[in-house]
Specification:
This protein has 555 residues and is an alpha/beta fold. 35% of the residues lie in helices and 18% in strands. The chain is built from 21 helices and 21 strands. The chain has an 11-stranded mixed beta sheet with strand order 6-5-9-8-7-12-1-13-20-2-21, sandwiched between helices. A hairpin with a 4-residue loop joins strand 3 and strand 4. Helix 4 runs parallel beside helix 20, helix 10 runs parallel beside helix 12 and helix 14 packs across helix 16. The termini are far apart.
Length: 555
């Protein structure tokens, strides 16, 4: 007996809606949630290359999932660590505390990374002199933490990336493990924060030298042109040689397949969560920019890699039992030379030269020569508190002084830490973006406002600005609860964790300020005469107690 096509479609829709209605993390519906984060992947890439993609990779989400074209970070510090923390906590730096990839620690008197933790050790690499790593710098919990809380630990949460920060921050405090690579050898490692030794399957993976097959390879585009090779070079690490090629993504997905298989993800009594951050795009993008032939080739290779991984998930778990979300931690500026050829004002700047100029300007003002600027991670300035204290200059005055020096060397404006801590940024789009960038970490600092298309590097390009080329990222979902379509309504990365939490029937992360993307949910009905989602900027809300430095106590 043959059903009419329309009847079959309606029947399928009804079945999907029924399944969606009973989705719950508590009874493993879905069995597995997979979040793909692409490091430095601009929001316009998916539409730029849409017609060149195959059917099973990006287009699984674009054509058969919910795709939000207007997804932008509403903060200014568009770096890797803040981006990954934002996606999984559902809040910005003013909520989760991760301001940058690294910052000055006034108690330890040194620069620390966003995930550095001297109380832990690296696991999987004998004799490592490096300190261990953990999520302890996070001031907010994550989607994975709420999943663990809701299921009394029955849900499994795993994360992986080439970079430690991109692996650790998505998992939050209670992840079963976060895995990243030793940059020199390419071996997969973790931290004693999670476990005292690698699981046997991961140790076997390393012992099998699985990364060696990605050496001495040629990366060719679709026309057969050799773009890069991975021949070992003296003084260069696995991360440097392989990391800027699609082979790095192949390596990550190979490890991810082992993880899913041996940890039996999707086969437990509660919904499991897997986060994969693909780091190669960022390593390459800094060198060649977003408009190069290599970046196009990387995107097309990634499309193939995603299709293969989704096929694997279909065989291993069943795609009907999997929800997939895809986004990015930030975008990237065009190469200044590319913008300049189109008569767009652009510049490649030298942070070292600008730092020296700022020190000279402050020294002249105070009448005493010193290194008042400790470091300049364009456009973020870390102040030397000791030098200012010796000159009897307090924090707010010191930050204003350095901010004025920033303007003298060419930046458009500045926001001081003291100003942001008091919520004194103007109630404008820019003011809110910088207020959302605030963190109590990092000692004294100033965030500069750069001119558009100006990057703080002499070669290549960079990110870390509030402009759309850095804030615009993809946001797409695939799975039974999502109504397939392209959505032009405004969305933000903070909506990812909140939407998934709502669908799983669990609490959103504690500091989350995103919204549930109801317009993309199957069977949802929007209220008539709705004026759309209402957002309340962090600058207009009381700061969580954990973010008020005076109340945090000893670190």
């Amino acid at each position: 007996m043959k059903f009419p096509r329309t009847l079959a479609i309606h029947l399928g829709l009804c079945l999907c809606l029924c399944a969606s209605a009973f989705a719950s993390a508590y009874n493993a519906h879905p069995k597995l949630v997979v979040v793909i984060v692409i490091d430095q992947f601009r929001g316009d890439y998916l539409e730029r290359y849409h017609d060149q993609f195959g059917d099973g990779g990006f287009r699984l989400l674009l054509d058969h999932g919910a795709f939000f074209t207007d997804c932008n970070y509403d903060y200014a510090n568009t770096r890797t660590a803040p981006g990954h923390a934002t996606l999984f906590t559902g809040t910005y730096s003013s909520g989760h505390g991760i301001l940058a990839n690294e910052w000055w620690d006034p108690q330890k008197k040194k620069t620390v990374t966003s995930v550095e933790d001297g109380t832990t050790q690296i696991v999987g690499l004998s004799g490592s002199p490096s300190p261990g790593a953990s999520p302890r710098n996070l001031l907010a919990d994550t989607l994975g933490d709420e999943l663990k809380l809701a299921t009394q630990g029955k849900a499994r949460v795993f994360t992986l990336a080439l970079k430690d920060r991109a692996a650790i921050l998505p998992g939050g405090y209670s992840a079963d493990a976060a895995f990243w690579i030793d940059q020199k050898s390419g071996a997969w490692i973790t931290s004693s924060y999670y476990r005292s030794e690698l699981p046997k399957w991961a140790q076997d993976f390393n012992d099998g030298k699985r990364g060696d097959k990605y050496l001495n390879r040629e990366w060719k585009d679709s026309d057969g042109t050799v773009l890069r090779t991975t021949s070992p070079q003296s003084g260069k690490s696995f991360y440097q040689i392989v990391g800027s090629t699609p082979f790095a993504n192949d390596y990550e997905f190979e490890f991810a397949r082992e993880l899913v298989t041996y940890e039996k993800l999707g086969n437990g009594p509660a919904t499991d969560l897997l986060s994969i951050s693909l780091s190669a795009n960022d390593i390459l993008g800094h060198q060649v920019g977003p408009d190069s032939a290599e970046m196009r080739a990387m995107a097309l290779e990634m499309d193939r890699q995603l299709a293969d991984f989704f096929t694997f998930l279909g065989h291993q778990v069943g795609l009907a039992n999997v929800w997939i979300a895809l986004s990015a931690d930030h975008g990237v500026a065009p190469l200044p030379g590319v913008a300049a050829r189109l008569r767009i004002p652009a510049a490649s700047l030298s942070p070292e030269k600008m730092q020296a100029q700022m020190n000279d300007a402050v020294s002249r003002k105070l009448g005493h020569k010193a290194d008042y600027v400790r470091d300049f991670d364009y456009p973020l300035v870390w102040l030397n508190e000791d030098a200012f204290t010796a000159a009897k200059v307090k924090e707010d005055e010191a930050e204003r002084m350095v901010g004025e020096a920033l303007q003298q060397v060419g930046l458009r404006g500045f926001y001081t830490k003291s100003q942001l801590a008091k919520g004194e940024a103007p109630n404008t789009g820019d003011g809110i973006r910088y207020e959302n960038s605030y963190s109590p970490e990092g000692g004294w600092y100033v965030i500069g406002v750069p001119a558009p298309f100006s990057v703080g590097t002499a070669k290549g390009t960079d990110h870390a600005t509030p402009y759309t080329y850095d804030t615009h990222v993809p946001l797409a979902f695939y799975g039974i609860p999502f109504q397939a379509g392209t959505y032009r309504s405004h969305a933000e990365p903070i909506d990812l964790a909140v939407t998934l939490a709502s669908l799983l029937g669990i609490n959103a992360p504690a500091h989350a300020s995103g919204r549930v993307l109801t317009e993309a949910l199957a069977g949802s009905r929007r209220a008539e005469n709705s004026t759309g989602p209402q957002r309340h900027p962090a600058s207009q809300q009381p700061k969580p107690a954990a973010l008020i430095p005076a109340e945090r106590g000893a670190e």
